Amino acid sequence: MPVDLFSVGRIFRGKEVTVAGNGPSLRLLETRPEGPLCTVNAGLSYFYELGWEVDLHWIQDRRMMTEKPELVEPYLELAKIIAYNSEISYFRESTISSTMPIHMLGYKGFSKEPGIGVFHGYTAIYGLLQILYYCKPAKLSLYGVGLNYFSNETRFYQSTRGVDVDLHRANEQVKLVSEAIRQFEFIGIPVDVVGASMLKRASYSC
Predict the structure, then answer these.
(1) Are the C-beta atoms of residues 119 and 110 closer than 8 Å to each other?
(2) Angle between helices 170-186 and 124-135 (to 10 degrees)
(3) How far, rounded to the nearest angstrom, does the alpha carbon of residue 204 sit from its chain's CA centroid?
(4) pLDDT tier at 158 (50, 70, 90 boundaries)?
(5) How many helices (H) and strands (E) does the chain have?
């Protein structure tokens, strides 16, 4: 059943929200946060191990449903709301209780109106941050957002680094996510990056 953005906003507005990427520092999240929990792509499989529900799951990359469905599909029922890139044609909405398709606007930019669409930013975390900006949480804590693609670090579910790592976009990912953090902090919403991350080395000004 489709859910509207205004209803999603009410879940997160004024709350301390935990955001879980797919980087290695995701495993530092060992205790269920009191506030809402969001993740992206394969993050649901981690929370399946822990037996945690997720309030919002964002699927931005088409390959997660076409090339790697085993990392996502078995766990979709864990998420109360599934938001997803509306360009993903292979998505069985009928099996999910609440879904919200989001239009993609392009690669660079920052949307404050995700009802119109969000920008890709070369990483799923970027799309999710634009949705959460609209929701106006009290605080964000980011886990698993290392963006250190030039190291040998793996995603939390890998034993070796994936061949799909887009090294030539790595610097742009760091710049764009840093800019997204700056947008939150400009309106008084603190963002805590937990664990090792290239974001801690980057200026929050692009």
Answers:
(1) yes
(2) 10
(3) 19
(4) low
(5) 5, 9
According to DSSP, the residues that pair with 111 across neighbouring strands are none
Task: Report the alpha-carbon distance of residue 60 to residue 183 in Å, rounded.
Answer: 21
Residue 72 CA, distance from chain mean position: 14
Of residues 26 and 66, the one with the higher pLDDT is 26
Measured from the Cβ of residue 168, the count of other Cβ atoms closer than 10 Å reads 8
- What amino acid is encoded at 122 in this protein? Y
Instruction: Give the whole-angstrom CA distance, residue 90 versus residue 46.
Output: 23
- Position 206 scores a pLDDT of 39
- The DSSP secondary structure of 172-191, one letter per residue, reads HHHHHHHHHHHHHHHTT--E
Average pLDDT for residues 121-132, to the nearest whole number?
96
- pTM recorded for the entire structure: 0.89
H-helix segments, the chain: 5-12, 43-50, 63-66, 124-135, 170-186
**Calpha distance 68→73 (Å, rounded):** 9
Q: How many residues does the chain have?
A: 206
Q: What pLDDT score does 3 carry?
A: 85
